[in-house]
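[09:14] KT: can someone run the structure on this one? pasting the chain below
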Amino acid sequence: MFKGSFVALITPMLPDGNVDFPSLQKLVEMHVKNGTHGIVAVGTTGESATLPMHEHIKVVESVVNYAAGQMPVIAGSGANSTEEAIYLSKEMVSCGIDGFLSVVPYYNKPQQQGIVAHFDAIAGATDLPVLLYNVPARTVTDMTTETVVKLAKHPNIVGLKDATGDLSRLHEERSALGQDFMLLSGDDSTGCEFMCSGGDGVISVTANIVPDKMAQICNAALSGDFDRAQRIDSALTDLHQELFVESNPVIPKWALYKMGLIESPELRLPMVKPELNSQKVIEQRLEDLELI
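[09:31] RB: done, structure tokens below
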């Protein structure tokens, strides 16, 4: 259902802080042209934390319209309030999305039993498939494999985005969850190895910058051509790391701005543009890759 290279799409903004919908359309069309397998709209990289609900829904709806059925669109619907996540999910059903990505509740540090209850409630609120999202570096709370196994019993919970970067977790999860439960990497630095070790795909920040290369890596890995996948990925090792020298999506937005793909590198406060040294680092990488 959800396999291959899914871009964790940025939300472009104008200097006045409003969403830049023409640039958003240009980005979606670029991903269609370059073979990206799907889009995650308004996840962490899309600045979900600072988009009010009406804007969040409008961006998701716009991405669906721009994609025009040429690739699946997954909507970020996570919140640290179960009630809010359910409300947002229900509101986005009519947008024409193909599923939801819902993150482990952040800041309030729920128990594992609370995580189960949270996601069971969200998954039961609509008929659309749900991908769980575990990213303890941002949420503090780590969703255990045992918890995922419990949640996988819900018919609408179809997969997991694992952003731990711990490949031993993949083997543990695959063994416990079987082949039908989708496992996607949320860590670009280990994403290729994740797929070559049995993962189904990536939800990638790097795909914002080199969508063609990330799609090629996933196509090769899914077809069993691991040498080709690793060869393409090896040229992106530094890019994977340098896109995160400051909090995501600060650097990806700066890179897309320098590449001429968005009008402005504007972010919503409290995020601000990258430090001068970080700008120089990513600009040099883009030059090395002949992207600028």
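[09:33] KT: thanks! The domain at 4-224 is CATH 3.20.20.70 (TIM Barrel).
[09:34] RB: yep, looked fine to me
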